[in-house]
Write a structure and sequence with these properties.
single chain; mainly alpha; 8 helices; 79% helix; globular
């Protein structure tokens, strides 16, 4: 695909952006902003985003991404509960922490298991039901997102590494599927994830030094 064709697809895609996609993108940006500043509004805004993207992903044949957004929806409820839980002194019980070596091993195993499961499922579905699916790319974007969401609910700083990987994979994936506005959205999320990582590491260091 030439540069001219890419630009033409980009402009055409923006012109064809639907209101549901626009609302989902705005809600998603707000959700990432709230997560960066450690605000529990990350979850209600995130729920708007994920519910709309379940529908958009099915429509575009991105079955792995549809499963990711369903998982996001469930984990958003779980994370919302964890992030708003308080002790008797009305202090939030969950704080940002770094992963231990053991936890890193668990994360990689979690990612590997989901990648294999989604890849195999999509390879089968591509033959029978979803010929436009891209198993290896969709599985990577899905598995990194599964891992990132799990760690975000636990307020692990390393969740941002997984979000960065998800965003890098999703930018071309959605562009190819002609969800151009969503592709731009993931570029914005990539930048925000980099700043989010820096912010959470800073907060961990501040808390460590204060303690």
């Amino acid at each position: 695909m030439s540069l001219h064709e890419v630009l033409h697809q980009f402009i055409t895609g923006l012109q064809q952006t639907t209101w549901p996609e626009f609302i989902a993108v705005i809600a998603g940006i707000l959700s990432v902003w709230f997560s960066r500043v450690e605000n529990s509004w990350v979850y209600p805004t995130g729920l708007i985003n994920t519910i709309i993207y379940i529908w958009l992903s099915f429509k575009g044949g991105l079955l792995g991404e549809a499963s990711v957004n369903f998982y996001y929806t469930v984990m958003s409820v779980y994370g919302w509960i964890l992030w708003t839980r308080k002790d008797r002194q009305q202090q939030y019980t969950l704080v940002i922490t770094r992963s231990t070596r053991k936890e890193w091993g668990q994360q990689l195993a979690f990612f590997g298991a989901f990648y294999a499961a989604v890849f195999l499922a999509l390879t089968y579905l591509k033959k029978e039901f979803a010929p436009t699916a891209i198993p290896w790319a969709d599985a990577f974007a899905s598995a990194t997102a599964y891992t990132g969401m799990w760690l975000m609910a636990k307020k692990k700083a390393e969740s941002w590494y997984w979000w960065i990987a998800t965003n890098l994979a999703s930018i071309p994936l959605y562009f190819v599927k002609q969800y151009v506005f969503t592709s731009v959205y993931y570029i914005i999320l990539l930048v925000m994830a980099i700043f989010g990582l820096a912010e959470w590491i800073k907060r961990v260091n501040e808390r460590t030094h204060a303690g």
